[in-house]
Amino acid sequence: MSRPDFIHLDCAAGVPMRPELAAEYPTLVQKFGLNPHGVTCYAEDARRAILDAERRLLALCGTTPAEAGVVWCANGTEAANLALRGFPWKHGDAPLAIDLGAHPALLQTAKARNDRPRHGFLVGDGGALAPEPPAEAELVALSAVNNETGVRWNGARPGSAAEATVLVDACQAFGKHPLHWPSADLMILSSRKIGGPATGAALLYRRNLRLLPVITGGGQQGGVRDGTLDTVGILLFAKAAETACAHQAEALEAVTALNHELRAGIEHLGHGGWPLFSPADASPYICYFAIPGYEGAIVARTLAQRYGILVGTGSACSAESSQTSPLLKSMGVPDNLARGAIRISFSAQSTHEDLRAFLTALPEVLHDY
């Protein structure tokens, strides 16, 4: 297997599909390419395959079909919208507590809910929520692993809002870290973060929670999310999940070594003056730092164009925009420093050669900036 002609160090945004899964696609399409919701024997085979994939995915998360169900979605953004827009509120004035560092799929959708008050918090020291959500909150939405800093939730339900439903965006955690399903009521998983098809996600829900549909149609998936399911994509998603979880421990060990090497390189190249936004106990898959005096977007673009090295900026900033990361704003980072942010995010396929290529190219880019 040949590697791509670029070095992918922006894996928080997604990773290429695993080649062994891509090789299965033609065979699966021939077997499961028909509508799984029809009345033919082929449709019945597809339905059974989807139910088996659901059982396997739930097992990987530490639960069973008796306790939880799966709503298959096209992507994590759709799953977040279904969870937030389809949540069955009991009281019209009950607040929504939202992680201010959450992915825009959660954060912007929460802001769009103008029908109820919002309470913001951050996942802070030790993975705890600060400030604690109010006791009257009915829904608490948070990230298991922050997609910019790698900060990890500690898995504890908010004690102040003991009766609240807890929605966890686990897209950056699944296949890499424990999921803490017992503390969640809704959980979002992504296929493309673990080498599955790019258009695949799952919203796990407890059986006692009845979501309201966001789109309506033919009544598929119990009427919660209508529309024809992609059987092939679901089966490949389940296989990618099993592969990632089977190698989770060894991948974490390897990526932790890469993270240590990267932090040492940042310390050396920046002479101790480049601030790190990722704490020491963050997920080693993500390292977020800033290069003062430089535009992170320009540095990232030059690395890609000149060296074929893909990194993230972790923000919406660019040479043409004055916007910076809302998370860094919440953390009190000045705009001029936030604009220099660079995010390195590893995958199980990342290598020391990839990292050394980045650490070699970066000072050359800064020299010619």
Give the secondary structure arrangement, pairings included.
Elements: E1 7-8, H1 19-32, H2 41-60, E2 68-73, H3 76-85, E3 96-99, H4 104-112, E4 118-123, E5 129-130, E6 139-143, E7 165-169, E8 186-190, E9 201-206, H5 231-246, H6 248-269, E10 286-290, H7 296-307, E11 309-310, H8 326-330, H9 335-338, E12 341-345, H10 352-367
Parallel strand pairs: 1-11, 3-4, 3-6, 6-7, 7-8
Antiparallel strand pairs: 2-9, 4-5, 8-9, 10-12
Helix pairs in contact: 1-5, 2-5, 3-4, 6-10, 7-10
Molecular structure report:
Strands 2-9-8-7-6-3-4-5 form an eight-stranded mixed β-sheet, with helices on one face. A two-stranded parallel sheet has the order 1-11. A two-stranded antiparallel sheet has the order 10-12. It has helices at 19-32, 41-60, 76-85, 104-112, 231-246, 248-269, 296-307, 326-330, 335-338, 352-367, and strands at 7-8, 68-73, 96-99, 118-123, 129-130, 139-143, 165-169, 186-190, 201-206, 286-290, 309-310, 341-345. The protein is globular. Residues 315-321 have low confidence and may be disordered. The longest helix has 22 residues, at 248-269. It has two domains: 7-13 and 247-367, Aspartate Aminotransferase, domain 1 (Alpha-Beta Complex), CATH 3.90.1150.10; 33-246, Aspartate Aminotransferase, domain 2, CATH 3.40.640. Strand 4 and strand 5 form a beta hairpin. It is α/β, with parallel strands linked by helices.
